[in-house]
Specification:
Blueprint (H helix, E strand, L loop, with lengths): L7 H26 L4 H29 L4 H6 L9 H24 L5 H8 L2 H11 L6 H18 L7 H26 L6 H22 L2 H6 L10 H26 L2 H22 L6 H39 L38
Helix pairs in contact: 1-11, 1-12, 2-9, 2-11, 4-8, 4-9, 5-7, 6-8, 6-12, 7-12, 7-13, 8-12, 12-13
């Protein structure tokens, strides 16, 4: 069976399809059922994620008893439930807070800024992802950083429209962008760093905490009393409950593909894919919902598509260079120098490899944040 890393682009495609599907589901169905309670909806999503991960681990226990390998294990690879120490649990708690704050501040920001302004600001997430990655000792080549620029500019052009915002809204949106980048980087560290959690295991630890935090926010904002005053949402008409439950199941699928993609590629690649998805949604909305676009929007879409192709090419080339460099390093470090009988240490200085703070250069063997 091919390694999970060999399937990284498959998971990236699955994540993109899931993301677009969930967005379209929200756009079409929630307008029908008029369910405007984002925190309670997030609570339902996290409930479905908690139950979904528990089912996966139950299925794995059954496989262990029977000595068989289910389709779940074939799809997700080797999966073991890890018991975390106090440090690991504190990491999970902090990550759940980042996750919940990202939802909360994201919802609040839309009250003070237009959707177009929000989308343009969110196109900057890859910039913050690079900056935060450098702070934790990750490396990016100059060409990889440069390949991000046309994608960001293209998304800004594609989303440009009626831009309305307030200073408070700008601050909220900026915080939301930073949290989105922080979430991607922290998830990458938890999946590939010292904890090395499997994506399903991470989701299993994260979802119950996020579920509690989301229901607290729902109570604090008055959503639950408002829902109780509308019995048609849960008694007289079954459609809203069915739609909300289906949305929760889709959320579980989306989170699995998101974390698998984060582990197998990188947080930067995931945020770039998010920008590409954003542009794809503009195209789909234009076709399905007859949403008008300006020539500037259309040109921005073309720039993003070309830029994403360039980024994919550069990303693959960097991975090949990293692999070749690691092979040379292993070989030369085992061979004594003819003059001094001291092992030779090969340093990779090409392609501006060490683009990071000097204080972090001792972590030169850490790979780019990989989801």
């Amino acid at each position: 069976m091919a390694s999970l890393r060999d399937e990284s682009w498959l998971w990236l495609c699955l994540w993109t399809i899931n993301n677009i599907g969930v967005t379209l589901l929200n756009k079409i169905t929630f307008a029908m059922v008029d369910f405007q309670y984002p925190y309670f909806l997030s609570f339902v999503h996290m409930l479905c994620n908690s139950l979904g991960t528990q089912y996966i681990f139950w299925q794995i226990k059954q496989d262990d008893k029977t000595g068989t390998e289910s389709s779940i294990q074939k799809l997700l690879g080797h999966l073991v439930r890890r018991d975390l120490d106090a440090t690991g649990k504190s990491y999970i708690l902090w990550f759940s807070l980042i996750f919940s704050l990202n939802i909360a501040i994201g919802n609040v920001s839309l009250r003070y800024v237009s959707v177009n302004f929000n989308q343009v600001m969110r196109s900057l997430v890859p910039c913050f992802t690079i900056f935060l990655g450098l702070l934790v000792g990750k490396t990016f080549t100059c060409r990889r950083i440069a390949s991000v620029v046309p994608i960001i500019v293209g998304v800004m052009m594609a989303c440009f429209g009626d831009m309305e915002y307030t200073i408070l809204g700008f601050v909220y949106t900026l915080c939301c962008v930073i949290l989105a980048a922080l979430k991607a980087v922290v998830a990458g560290e938890m999946l590939t760093g010292s904890l090395k959690l499997h994506p399903v295991d991470l989701l299993g630890h994260l979802a119950p905490l996020a579920m509690i935090q989301c229901i607290i926010m729902s109570l604090a904002t008055g959503e639950i009393p408002a829902i109780l005053r509308r019995p048609e949402l849960y008694l007289t008409d079954p459609r809203p409950a069915i739609v909300i439950l289906f949305s929760g199941l889709c959320s579980f699928s989306l989170n699995i593909t998101s974390l698998m993609t984060n582990k197998l590629t990188s947080p930067l690649t995931l945020t770039i894919a998010g920008n590409v998805k954003q542009v794809m949604m503009i195209v789909i909305s234009t076709i399905v919902f007859a949403t008008p676009i300006t020539p500037l929007n259309g040109f921005g879409i073309v720039v993003v598509l070309i830029g994403s192709a360039i980024y994919s090419f550069v990303s693959l080339k960097d991975k090949k260079d990293d692999s070749a460099s690691s092979t040379v390093l292993r070989k030369t470090s085992m061979e004594p120098d003819d003059e001094t009988n001291i092992p030779v240490i090969v340093q990779n200085t090409g392609n501006c490899r060490d683009v990071r703070p000097a204080i972090l250069t001792s972590r030169s063997n850490s790979r780019e944040s990989g989801v």
